[in-house]
């Protein structure tokens, strides 16, 4: 994928349907990946449950990491999300709704390969919204003394990962794997299958924890002598006539896809778990002996850093050399306003919970003729109107056919005018959601920046109303 394409958000060109067995539940699951609007992110929907609840793919909603990564929110619980999350991150999919009729992502062959192939077959749709990458300005470290896990994120211009594993096993030994850029994921990392040791497998089978396990969806490392009786029992568990042990210590003569396939799969898990940060990141990750629990704790630490950094550097950056997310023509397709009441020139950022617009204030604005004509000042009410229009873009971006809806503002609170807006100023208009949209009611906080100073701020409540019938 070209760098220019990566500047924009992507969704799928069409729906993808897959089905398979859950590794831990053993239940057959149907999964459908559906395209989603810019800023939607990745969300899972349990269509088999009352109300069809949705859980966002976010590290804040991780509730279990014992054998896989499990999310739960709003009554929706989805486990083993790491392989599909890695596939979406590896192909650059930003916005998708994953519908499931069960509680676990199908294990497929134990890798991300089937998901990658389905995504590539369907293709990606370039969206009219910029993709914002977050960089790490300093080293972020995580260490688990008990498990001897060490992870660090270092500043870098792209996303790369170095992974090291050491299980003190004569069969597996010490391995390492590298991903020099996310573009390598599809060919070098995605085909690598999950693995476990025979003693772990036997223990989990004794507890009835792996109901969907099969020799074809995991590499089983045999790290101890195995009797013919034990092999016969495993054959019965996996519905096989016979199971054998390869001389390298891999059950049933499975050929590795790479000599270091286990290390590469651990790297795959790191990609999938860190995708739950919710932000595309540029950093060099070094992961020594990683696992789902440590990956998730590390992801939480990185997300906390980004959120704190965003708060400290909350001033939107306007680079006129960058193409807008929405130009004036695109804005007019969403908003009903026209000259002289269209007070937004372009949108430069559009996320699920935030939008940033630009208004260039010139001496030729019609309101300057009568508003303090000898000392022209932009009316505060029009600054609020400009914010409201930007907020309308954010609100209408959440509906499937925005041209058939309008936003009407119901209330303005905590309004403060801190600096005059004068001819020649460039207004940077930022609106952020204060709470999820419910029943069409949108609560937002708006800020007008002139340079690096706040000119105006206010809390606003609007309502989305259908005003036109769809075509």
TrEMBL record:
InterPro entries assigned to the protein according to its UniProt record, in alphabetical order: FabA_FabZ, FabZ, HotDog_dom_sf, Ribosomal_Su5_D2-typ_SF, UDP-acyl_GlcNac_deAcase, UDP-acyl_GlcNac_deAcase_C, UDP-acyl_N-AcGlcN_deAcase_N
Keywords: Cytoplasm, Hydrolase, Lipid A biosynthesis, Lipid biosynthesis, Lipid metabolism, Lyase, Metal-binding, Zinc
Subcellular location: Cytoplasm
Known catalytic reactions: a UDP-3-O-[(3R)-3-hydroxyacyl]-N-acetyl-alpha-D-glucosamine + H2O = a UDP-3-O-[(3R)-3-hydroxyacyl]-alpha-D-glucosamine + acetate; a (3R)-hydroxyacyl-[ACP] = a (2E)-enoyl-[ACP] + H2O
Pathway: Glycolipid biosynthesis; lipid IV(A) biosynthesis; lipid IV(A) from (3R)-3-hydroxytetradecanoyl-[acyl-carrier-protein] and UDP-N-acetyl-alpha-D-glucosamine: step 2/6
Cofactor(s) this protein requires: Zn(2+)
EC identifiers of the protein: 4.2.1.59, 3.5.1.108
Highest taxon, organism lineage: Bacteria
Catalytic residues, chain numbering: 292, 371
Annotated residues for binding of Zn(2+): 83, 265, 269
Entry keyword Hydrolase: yes
Pfam families assigned to the protein according to its UniProt record, in alphabetical order: FabA (PF07977), LpxC (PF03331)
Function per UniProt: Involved in unsaturated fatty acids biosynthesis. Catalyzes the dehydration of short chain beta-hydroxyacyl-ACPs and long chain saturated and unsaturated beta-hydroxyacyl-ACPs. Catalyzes the hydrolysis of UDP-3-O-myristoyl-N-acetylglucosamine to form UDP-3-O-myristoylglucosamine and acetate, the committed step in lipid A biosynthesis.
Family that this chain belongs to: Belongs to the LpxC family.
UniProt protein name: Multifunctional fusion protein
Organism field: Chitinophaga nivalis
Gene that encodes the chain: fabZ
